[in-house]
């Protein structure tokens, strides 16, 4: 499925072009409660949308969950909307993608999320407009949904938004911590994509550019943001999204979900915590635990390429670069600094993280023992 992209400052005004092309009668507009106004999108979009009936919806919860998706589906099913516009961070875009597709596929949300029932119908045309620079959800076929504390993913080609509007202006208001955590999400996604067992030449070229851009710009965009650094970070996040759309993410993402759902660590911060340690782990791949069908030598070569993209000569140096970068943008690098204790709490991450489907995309197999060892190193 192809997507139309509008990238750069003021690209949000291209919504006017989309409205002329689609001529919708009724629009379903999904936004964050306060970020829609704060990021400046509301004042630009409102005059454009006034010519057609617009149904507005904002999720109640900060993390994407079944309750909000069900409320959105109920409202959308009672209306005759023929265009959906999502404006927000990854959470809002994922809720919008879920509402849109599930509203036209029969059956309960749980059937699709948990029992993996196959989606057969496209949603309505969807315009995705990110207001954070991190997830790249505007360019992926995934939507994350938490059921109680377990993370699930909807995953289908039909879920790729029809339009992605990637306007860095909308991220100018993002505070430092969210800029840092979302930025680290983009970098981690790009690195995981590069070493994923599903990586191919195309995903690697997106990932390479995303890694180079985010390594270069992350300190500036967090500590001294400018129009240029916001633009570069937004581009990096979008490219990382395109990369994982092909390759999916791996162990760092798998281990992050319980850190977020049980201990409230922001998504991007959580994925970055194990990134440094995974460098050494994956570099130590052996014939007996390689998961990539291209073999051990391929994985080792890939890891060397990752180190080189980070400006490092080996796994230890690469891990130090990641830790140094996290500290430079104000992110803690230890679980204890985030209130997560060894013992029962660490075991919760081992058990729930190990269950995630993403763990098997890692180039080197992980045992519970290996995961425990990695987490203890960052305790
Ligand atoms: P988020 O969407 O949860 O937003 C974080 C915070 O930033 C919120 O409080 C929000 O109100 C605020 N915010 C958003 N835009 C703002 C702006 N312009 N100015 C000021 N504040 C603003 O965070 P996120 O990191 O963008 O998204 C995380 C979610 O995305 C997680 O659920 C994660 O699993 C998911 N995700 C999805 C994909 C995918 O492909 N679908 C990929 C990666 C991550």
Question: What can you see in these coordinates?
Answer:
With 379 residues, the protein is an alpha/beta fold. The protein has helices at residues 15-22, 35-38, 41-49, 66-78, 90-102, 109-113, 176-195, 201-223, 227-247, 251-263, 267-273, 275-283, 296-309, 315-328, 344-355, 368-377; strands at 4-7, 26-31, 53-57, 83-88, 126-130, 142-147, 150-155, 163-166. The chain has a 6-stranded parallel β-sheet, covered by helices on one side. The chain has a two-stranded antiparallel sheet with strand order 6-7. The longest helix has 23 residues, at 201-223. The mean pLDDT is 97.
| N→C terminal distance | 43 Å
> What is the CATH architecture assignment of the largest domain?
Up-down Bundle
The domain tally reads 2
Helix/strand/pairing category: alpha/beta
N-to-C SSE string, H for helix and E for strand:
EHEHHEHEHHEEEEHHHHHHHHHH
CATH topology of the largest domain: Dehydroquinate synthase-like, alpha domain
Summarize the structure.
With 379 residues, the chain is of the alpha/beta class. 51% of the residues lie in helices and 11% in strands. Strand 6 and strand 7 form a beta hairpin.
Quick tags:
379 residues, alpha/beta, Rossmann fold, Dehydroquinate synthase-like, alpha domain, 2 domains, 51% helix, 11% strand, globular, binds nicotinamide-adenine-dinucleotide
SSE inventory with pairings:
Layout: E1 4-7, H1 15-22, E2 26-31, H2 35-38, H3 41-49, E3 53-57, H4 66-78, E4 83-88, H5 90-102, H6 109-113, E5 126-130, E6 142-147, E7 150-155, E8 163-166, H7 176-195, H8 201-223, H9 227-247, H10 251-263, H11 267-273, H12 275-283, H13 296-309, H14 315-328, H15 344-355, H16 368-377
Parallel strand pairs: 1-8, 2-3, 2-4, 4-5, 5-8
Antiparallel strand pairs: 6-7
Helix pairs in contact: 4-5, 7-8, 7-9, 7-11, 8-9, 10-11, 10-15, 12-14, 15-16
Nicotinamide-adenine-dinucleotide is lined by residues 32, 35, 38-39, 62-64, 88-92, 94, 131-132, 134-137, 140, 142-144, 170-171, 173-174, 178, 182, 185, 267-268.
